[in-house]
Specification:
By secondary structure, this protein is of the alpha/beta class. The protein is built from 17 helices and ten strands.
């Protein structure tokens, strides 16, 4: 009887996840954040699981991804919680369906050696570069608020990560709040003043995540379930033994190649984030996450970065696909 029930559960899970009716070809926008799913991406596991051709397009910032998704050019994109809050506040037809990482030391405010910045108040009058409406922009503003430094007293400049690296090399900026690979290049001749791990403890957590257009999600639930399942399996491999995973040169090389990072930085940056399991994500992608998005949006509005707020951000978050992926995973055991 137990075996019969288990087979029925597996059959039901397969019906939900679907191995046959998949999208034929999908364009996915990804960024250069460090996480274990990059290994699965490099190994072609998403294509194998979804039986689809995936065109991976690399973007430099969440704002660029949001623009591509809003236009309908890209149905799935990797962004941070700050761009999500901004996009949701505009009423874009998107949903978060998967959390890539709870951001920690992989994003940081780095100050240039010789810029005479040894404490937060020294940022006054200095040129600080950051991609606007990104998680690092949100973290920078939150840090300045915590330090009681008026953002208007700081020369905050809107630059993309590649532009930050170029400006840093020229000596045009004094500090930057950014992620890899620009972060590693800045740290080579600078020091970290604060990371997003500490800013989260001050009450401003940030996340990396995957969004999907609602019209695509309605037509392709199997694709998204399989996408979540592959990501969950990648995270399970990392979380089983983080040190051994990060010590594996093959893993490091694949992540470095996809993100443009220095391989020497990858182990440290992997350890700088938290990668939630599918079970944890089914709980996170409910009230806790929608509240975080709402809080982020409210902060952005207070800073004049968004014009209006949604009455409820829950419609922009769903745990449907991580739950389906978890059900299929449990049924297969």
């Amino acid at each position: 009887m137990l075996k019969h029930i288990k087979l029925l559960a597996l059959s039901s899970a397969l019906a939900v996840t679907g191995l046959a009716a998949q999208a034929d070809e999908v364009t996915i926008a990804y960024q250069t954040g460090i996480d274990p799913s990059k290994v699965a991406q490099a190994d072609g596991l998403y294509e194998k699981a979804t039986a689809s051709k995936i065109n991976w397009r690399k973007f430099e910032s969440g704002a660029e991804v949001i623009a591509a998704v809003a236009s309908g050019d890209v149905p799935i994109g990797n962004i941070g919680s700050s761009p999500l809050a901004a996009g949701a506040s505009r009423g874009l037809p998107i949903q978060t369906f998967l959390v890539t990482a709870v951001i920690g030391d992989s994003e940081a405010l780095v100050v240039r050696n010789g810029a005479k910045i040894s404490k937060p108040q020294d940022l006054i009058g200095k040129k600080v570069a950051v991609p606007f409406v990104s998680t690092t922009h949100y973290s920078l503003l939150a840090a300045l608020k915590h330090w009681k430094v008026d953002p208007k007293q700081v020369q905050i400049i809107n630059l993309r990560p590649s532009e930050i690296s170029a400006a840093w090399a020229r000596g045009d900026i004094d500090a930057a709040y950014v992620w890899e690979p620009a972060l590693g290049k800045a740290r080579a001749s600078g020091k970290v003043l604060v990371s997003s791990q500490q800013v989260a403890k001050w009450g401003a957590p940030t996340y990396d995540l995957w969004i999907v257009r609602k019209d695509f999600a309605e037509k392709n639930p199997q694709f998204l379930t399989q996408f979540a399942k592959v990501t969950g399996e990648a995270y399970a491999r990392y979380n089983a033994d983080p040190k051994a995973y990060a010590a594996n040169p093959d893993n490091v090389a694949k992540i470095a190649r996809l993100t443009g990072s220095d391989p020497a930085d990858v182990p440290l940056l992997l350890a700088g984030n938290v990668y939630p399991s599918l079970k944890q994500q089914t709980e996170l992608l409910q009230k806790p996450f929608s509240k975080a998005v709402s809080d982020t949006a409210a902060f952005l509005k207070s800073q004049g970065k968004v014009d209006a707020l949604q009455p409820d951000y829950a419609p922009y978050v769903t745990n449907r696909f991580v739950k389906s992926a978890l059900d299929a995973q449990l049924a297969a055991k």
